[in-house]
Design goal:
alpha+beta, globular, 11 helices
Amino acid sequence: MDFPDISFFINRRTIRRYRPEPLPEGLLEQLLEAAAHAPSTGNMQLYSVVVTTDPTEKKALAPYHFGQPQVEGAAAVLTFCADFHRFSRWCQERGATPCYDNLQSFMAATLDTIAFAQQFNTLAESAGLGVCWLGTTTYNAGEIASALRLPGLVVPLITLTVGYPADNGEDAGRLPVEAVTHYGRYRDYTTADIDRLYSEKESRDDSSRFVAENGKETLAQVFTDVRYPRGNNELFSEKFLGFLKSSGFIR
């Protein structure tokens, strides 16, 4: 059996620095059209994307992503949103009563949005563009929704910055695939498993630098105490839950 060439995926890099040039006219639209053929719950396509290219509008979004420079430096900032507003409007216009103000509906829209965003990510990179997936969108979802004028039942989930790469990015490394694969049932990890599976990640030069810079003893402590501490997790969880309620997804 001939296996497909997976080098494109193995060698992909997140790009945070971009050349100061616009994207060709129509390129984003072509990529988004192709991305819209991603898997979708019930073929409902429960997502929307807001494309931001104006420098002033990108600057307005940057603080909600904690000032990450790629927001203003990219040619385009794409905010992918879980969207049950459009589908509900269609139902209303066709004499049907929408019933999607609940957690299950939000999860369906979330899964659709992730699939759409990831398919766009891969298509953009295959077209020679650099992409950075921002994990900060849900931290300030309410503020981003206000800036983008999102109606109820529309929740920003994922932001991608896109442009022509100014460098090759960095290899962040990945856990060996055995770390994330279970056959038949979930097999819990022994101490020896954890030591083996995380050894390469912990031995990287950048990992050692993170530990030293933050005055910690282990890389895990950098994550639990500095990057994603309990206080921030609970604060942003409360903010996001509040926004989900105000958006109409959770009563």
